[in-house]
Amino acid sequence: MAKAKKAKAKKKNSKLLLGAVIGAIAGGIAGVLTAPKSGKETQADIKREGKKAISKAKREARKLQGKKPVAKKPAAKKPAAKKIPAKKSGKKK
Fold first, then answer.
1. How confident is the model over 63-84, as pLDDT tens digits?
2. Domain residues for 28?
């Protein structure tokens, strides 16, 4: 009897995960089609959001399987902007 309950719960969880993935894809497509951005910007957004969705789906799948979640990678640091020294005026006192 306990195996039947586990199988039923697993099937329910997999349906929930599938629904969440399909909803995320549909939302992403709708957002892309209505966004007022250039093609390159849109492509970059799609790539970034796709990676996020894949990693989130993997984390959720690991949770459903009862495994430890994998730690998120730290965000890459952007290089610091170069400071340009202020120009000195040509006047001497």
1. 888 776 556 666 566 565 555 6
2. 7-65
